[in-house]
Amino acid sequence: MNRRFLLVAGLLLLGGCATTPPPIVAPAGAPFQELEPLLAARAGGEALTITVVSNGCTKKEDFAFFLERHGEAVRLAFGRKRIDVCKAAPSPVDITFTFAELGVGPRSPVFLLNPLEAL
Question: What is the DSSP letter of 10?
Fold first, then answer.
């Protein structure tokens, strides 16, 4: 009986570890350790909107960005400064950054480094 319990408990622990994706590491010198998974990203004429998962307390101020220029092109990454600790059901929320806030020209090619994730 104890062997079965240990086997089942071990499989459950290993199964939980196997389903956790490895963290995406930010570029060297970035102000955050992991990149925020994005549900979507949309570029408009004046701004870039990212869609992230929120537990009810996610705000624009909770995010930092890292920018790296390569000629006219820009590499851009977003990460959370503060974790959303609210208890609401996870839902998508849009966060908009103007190109002026990001320091990017409206016609500059932008490459997002964040992983895309399905909700």
Answer: H
**Would you call 26 helix, strand, or coil by DSSP?**
coil
Q: Does some domain include residue 4?
A: no
The span from the CA of 40 to the CA of 118, in Å, is: 9
Structural domain boundaries enclosing 30? 25-112
Residue whose entry in the numeric block shows the structure tokens 């820009």: 74
pTM as predicted: 0.70
Query: Quick one: which of 43, 46, 80 has its CA closest to 60?
Result: 80
Q: From first to last of its 119 residues, what are the pLDDT tens digits of the chain?
A: 455 555 555 555 555 444 444 454 555 655 555 899 999 999 998 999 999 999 999 999 999 999 999 888 999 999 999 889 999 999 999 999 999 999 998 788 999 999 999 87
Q: CA-to-CA distance for 15 and 25, rounded, in angstroms?
A: 23
Whether 12 maps to a domain, the answer reads: no
Tell me how many domains the chain contains. Answer: 1
